[in-house]
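Saturday, quiet lab. Running sequence design on the structure tokens for the scaffold JK sent over.
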């Protein structure tokens, strides 16, 4: 990336919009919206005598399945685990190839490598940041076994062509819906029609359980196996709370497979149950905040606001704003630092995976291989967004961005 450091001297105190400098006014990127209801539900778990995987996990699984209109949901420790279990259960193995996007977090490709399969990256669409379905077929080989699309920022991928290609070539579709709880595609909930769809409930996500994930599917065999694999591959491990440690329980169990240890605890599920009750309201609040940003930045020649395509209702996990670098005398990283100096905690999601040393080496990739993803990465800033923020915070962020655009106009 070309540097323009010489023009950036940091924000000078005389240029600061005064109260932005007070540390207490720091607007963080994605604070969790945890209330008294969550506190009470967690306490209930703590006092129940059963704190790990138990009744609350079961209830949370059922409610997530209902919410996303899938038959089954399997709670895990993380989305990474959910995707790993999904690929493992679908039989992805050494020698296989899985098509995915470079514009994502480490986990999406890591889980393919955990199965000793090879991630095959496809460039993204410039407007949605999502895998470009038009470019998928040319990369399908005899080794291709699955497609792993990522619904970036909560904007659904164009799933009809992806599902059609999968059907035509007998491929599985595992969706990375880490950002997309509550997202729909052409009126259908994400999670209701792919083979296995995986969510993240990490602390910054729309629904936060501190750490947590969920794999949903309409296939009962797969859900049964994934559930077993969350607990060492012990055949009825998830019934332990009912069977083994209760008076009527048996001390015997069978290890049926080489499983993992990635179960969700009842404490996390307690948080999740209450967060789920609020999720639609949270997502609406996010939409309202995104629209405030949209209005404030409308038609500004230094910016491009996120474009939401007609076919999706987005969960609005992120607000990825694109800088017009021609307009500015500073680069994106310097813009982020300048935002920090005025107490705005913006972030960058994501540096494309092929630019990270591990994947560059593994797959022999270099800068230039995925130009659309690279161009988005060079220009993107994700602004603070959370229902835990106030409307006044969002307006201050917008004011700060507009101020910096003026301050660093080329
Ligand atoms: C697109 C994407 N996929 C997967 C993950 C992994 O989620 P988890 O931390 O729950 O494993 C993240 C996490 O931020 C993500 O952004």
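Result came back. Writing it out in full:
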């Amino acid at each position: 990336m070309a540097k323009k450091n010489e023009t950036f001297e940091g924000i000078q105190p005389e240029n600061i919009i005064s109260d932005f400098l007070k540390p207490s006014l720091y607007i963080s990127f994605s604070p969790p919206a945890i209330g008294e209801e969550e506190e009470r539900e967690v306490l209930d778990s703590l006092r129940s005598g059963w704190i790990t995987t138990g009744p609350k996990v079961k209830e949370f699984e059922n409610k997530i399945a209902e919410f996303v209109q899938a038959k089954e949901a399997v709670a895990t420790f993380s989305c990474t685990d959910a995707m790993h279990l999904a690929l493992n259960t679908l039989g992805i193995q050494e020698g296989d190839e899985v098509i995915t996007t470079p514009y994502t977090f480490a986990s999406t490709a890591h889980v393919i490598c955990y199965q000793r399969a090879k991630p095959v990256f496809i460039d993204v669409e410039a407007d949605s940041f999502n895998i470009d379905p038009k470019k998928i077929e040319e990369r399908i080989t005899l080794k291709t076994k699955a497609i792993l699309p990522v619904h970036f920022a909560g904007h659904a991928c164009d799933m009809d062509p992806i599902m059609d290609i999968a059907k035509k070539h007998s491929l599985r579709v595992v969706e990375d819906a880490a950002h997309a709880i509550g997202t729909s595609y052409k009126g259908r909930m994400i999670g209701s029609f792919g083979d296995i769809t995986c969510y993240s409930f990490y602390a910054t996500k729309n629904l936060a359980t501190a750490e947590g994930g969920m794999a949903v599917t309409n296939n009962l065999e797969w859900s049964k196996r994934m559930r077993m694999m969350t607990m060492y591959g012990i055949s009825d491990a998830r019934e332990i709370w009912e069977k083994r440690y209760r008076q009527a329980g048996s001390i015997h169990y069978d290890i049926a497979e080489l499983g993992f240890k990635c179960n969700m605890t009842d404490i996390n599920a307690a948080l999740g149950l209450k967060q789920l009750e609020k999720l639609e309201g949270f997502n609406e609040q996010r939409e309202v905040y995104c629209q405030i940003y949209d209005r404030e930045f409308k038609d500004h020649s230094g910016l491009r606001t996120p474009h939401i395509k007609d076919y999706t209702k987005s969960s609005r996990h992120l607000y990825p704003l694109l800088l017009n670098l021609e307009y500015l005398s500073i680069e994106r990283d310097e813009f982020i630092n300048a935002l920090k100096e005025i107490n705005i905690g913006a972030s960058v999601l994501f540096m494309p995976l092929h630019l990270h040393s591990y994947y560059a080496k593994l797959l022999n990739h270099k800068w230039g291989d995925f130009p659309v993803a690279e161009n988005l990465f060079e220009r993107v800033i994700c602004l603070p967004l959370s229902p835990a923020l106030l409307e006044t915070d969002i307006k201050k962020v917008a004011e700060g961005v507009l101020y910096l655009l003026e301050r660093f106009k080329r």
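Notes for JK: The CA atoms of residues 299 and 305 lie 9 Å apart. The two ends are 18 Å apart (CA to CA). Ask whether to fix the surface positions before the next round.
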